[in-house]
From TrEMBL:
Keyword vocabulary terms for this entry: ATP-binding, Membrane, Nucleotide-binding, Transmembrane, Transmembrane helix
GO molecular function: ATP binding
Residues annotated as domain ABC transporter: 357-598
Membrane-spanning intervals of the chain: 71-88, 174-190, 263-285, 291-311
Name used for this protein in its record: ABC transporter ATP-binding protein
Main location: membrane
Membrane-topology annotation of the record: Multi-pass membrane protein
Domain ABC transmembrane type-1, first and last residues per copy: 53-322
Tree of life domain: Bacteria
Pfam families for the chain: ABC_tran (PF00005)
Subcellular location: Cell membrane
Length: 618
């Protein structure tokens, strides 16, 4: 593509990007768009009127000796208009704009958060995507306001410029040409400066993210203990320093170039416009005597006002260009099409009630990984069946669960629900079939009830549901003893009366989530690590009792819990090594039996674990 057609292409893309945000702003807050344009029109009108036509009228009045009373009326009327326009401007800047900006940001952030919560999990592991997301979030608010300002400014400054220049043209046509030339320079250098700033910004984002990460970690309470009790702070400090050095070095890298370009931009714009044209006007009036002194005065004021209009116009063009480049990130984030579509699609059907979930010869490799994490996995989970996945760390158990819930798609093989590939099913409804607690579950700074329901508490039926769920996860006695019961805030983030529970109690709250959901398949991905063996056994037991009519998948490193399942799958290096009931696997004397016996040896020293085994026997 030639240079000119490339520039045309860029210009087209940038205009399209700005219009995209203008449409977005219109959808979010149409009044803001209308008022923004109206205020801009009024500003430009008063600039042109007072700088040119007002001045022209007064000077002409003197030369044609107009009636003094008429001049006074004219001035009073224009003052009244000026007063109304300044009041409107004041209201817009002080009252309307700040509030409407916040309204736009709030809605825009909601759109971004919604998108972020639906893109595939793998996007958050993709460095490039994450950078785009960070930039879209950082820039979103500023850019919307900037787009509105620059579009309205460019429209009305153009009108203002045309009307001022027509007055100047009538005085001397060459003056207009003279005033136009430096604008080309301003535009040219402004564009160059933008590209440079964009590049600098692009390069500093990864460094900025390092600094943001440290800021976040230091600030969050769940890192506070480790930071105080270890020397990790020095590593965090180095990470922050690396980020800081990176940002500074990108600034240094572009500093000289940006300085030189800025100098030319200012020199050509201001010096040439303001001094040059006035000099030319003086030459016309004094040396050539081709214009009158009153024309020179009008030319002077029109020049100042016209030049500013032109500068505003060319700055707006540059700003539109700058917006366009940044909006690319926002657009590509918002338009990102998930390979796993979250939204309902007409060709996707609602999942039928579970009869059998079958994983057939699955193979899965994480993006960027050299070898497969899972290979040749075949598992069947029937209605009402309880299965357990066991194996050493890194065997692939959690990955298997993520595939089952379609957080990732398998690289090979298929997952079927009652014989139908799950890709043909509506994803949201499919995921709603699962009640899951992961090992890295999160407790939110919200009430206990909201943490259990994972939504707002809406009715007394909900209250009862929460209480029953907490009873099943064996933590209700503790919750009932708190002054606000299930309405107690968890953590002290927003509320001094918020409670901080023990690790095991937090886990029980998280586990209560699966009892409060109308799910058909329950998955416990080892959320019981902070529980003592008896508590874990009791919870699993209670779950199996409460969920007789549901399918259950348990992942646990404690074999005493796994043995409660109807079928156990032993995984190693991403593939199933052994499968069967506890008794079958023990008789086989393979790896499962070895692992079980190793744990049993440790358990013998602790009487409580003997109790677990006894209970199972019973
Ligand atoms: N998001 C990811 N990107 C790349 N590799 C990953 C990712 N998550 C897990 N892995 C890798 O996949 C392998 C299996 O991890 P997985 O978490 O499934 O094991 P696990 O059996 O659940 O382990 P544990 O018992 O320790 O929880 C590990 O080697 C891990 O490094």
């Amino acid at each position: 593509m030639g240079k000119i057609s490339l520039a045309m292409h860029h210009a087209k893309v940038n205009i399209a990007n700005n219009l995209f945000v203008l449409q977005l702003a219109w959808r979010i807050h149409p009044q803001r768009v209308i008022i923004d344009f109206t205020v801009q029109a009024c500003r430009q009108f008063s600039n042109v009127f007072f700088a040119v036509y007002f001045m022209k009228y007064i000077i002409e009045s003197i030369s044609v000796e107009r009636d003094f009373q008429q001049i006074v009326y004219f001035i009073l009327i224009t003052l009244a208009i000026l007063l109304v326009l300044s009041m409107l401007d004041h209201w817009y800047v002080q009252r309307f704009k700040p509030i409407s900006d916040l309204t736009i940001y709030e809605k825009l952030y909601l759109i971004l958060f919604r998108k972020a919560s639906t893109v595939e999990l793998k996007c958050f592991e993709d460095h490039e995507f994450y950078n785009k997301y960070t930039k879209a979030i950082q820039e979103a608010d500023r850019r919307t306001s900037a787009v509105l300002d620059s579009i309205s400014r460019i429209i009305f400054s153009s009108l203002a410029t045309i009307s001022i220049f027509s007055v100047m043209y009538a005085i001397d046509p060459w003056v207009v040409l003279f005033a136009l030339l430096p604008i080309v320079g301003n535009f040219y250098f402004g564009k160059k400066l933008n590209r440079l700033q964009f590049k600098q910004n692009e390069e500093s984002v990864p460094h900025q993210r390092k600094m943001d990460y440290v800021n976040r970690v230091i600030y969050l309470s769940n890192y506070a203990k480790e930071i105080r009790l270890s020397r990790i702070f020095s590593v965090l400090r180095s990470t922050y320093q690396e980020g800081y050095d990176g940002v500074i070095s990108t600034i240094h890298k572009y500093r000289v170039r940006a300085g030189v370009i800025s100098f030319f931009k200012i020199f050509l714009t201001f010096t040439l416009i303001f001094q040059g044209v006035l000099l030319y006007g003086a030459y016309l009036a004094i040396v050539k005597e081709s214009i009158s002194i009153s024309s020179f005065v009008v030319l002077g004021t029109a020049m100042v006002s016209g030049a500013w209009s032109l500068i505003r116009m060319s700055d707006s063009v540059v700003e539109i260009n700058k917006n366009g480049i940044f909006i690319d990130n926002l657009k590509s984030f918002l338009h990102y099409e998930s390979e796993i579509p979250e939204h309902a699609e007409p060709n996707l059907i609602s999942p039928p009630r579970l009869q059998q979930l079958a994983l057939r010869q699955l193979q899965f490799t994480y993006d960027g990984a050299e070898s497969a994490t899972l290979s040749d996995i075949t598992i069947e989970l029937n209605k009402n069946e309880k299965i357990a996945l066991v194996g050493h760390n890194g065997a692939g158990k959690s990955t298997l669960i993520k595939l089952m819930m379609r957080l990732y798609d398998p690289t090979e093989g298929e997952i079927t629900l009652n014989g139908r590939n799950i890709k043909e099913l509506d994803l949201m409804s499919y995921r709603a079939m699962f009640g899951t607690v992961f090992q890295d579950f999160r407790i939110f700074s919200m009430t206990i009830a909201e943490n259990v329901l994972m939504r707002e508490l809406e009715s007394d039926v909900d209250r009862q549901l929460v209480i029953e769920a907490l009873k099943k996860s064996r933590v209700y006695d503790k919750v009932a003893a708190l002054p606000h019961g299930i309405d107690t805030m968890l953590t002290k983030e927003f509320d001094d009366e918020g409670v901080v529970l023990s690790g095991g109690e937090f886990q029980k709250i998280a586990i209560a989530r699966i009892f409060a959901q109308p799910a058909e398949i329950l998955i416990l991905d080892e959320p019981t690590s902070a529980l003592d063996p008896i508590a874990e056994y009791e919870i699993f037991e209670s779950m199996l009792e409460a969920c007789e009519d549901k399918a259950v998948v348990i992942i646990s490193h404690r074999m005493s819990s796994a043995m409660l399942a109807d079928r156990i799958y032993y995984l190693e290096d991403g593939s199933i090594q052994e499968a069967g009931t506890h008794t079958e696997l023990m008789q086989r004397q393979g790896k499962y039996a070895e692992l079980f016996l190793k744990q049993a040896e440790k358990y013998v020293d602790q009487e409580e674990l003997v109790e677990v085994a006894n209970r199972h026997e019973a």
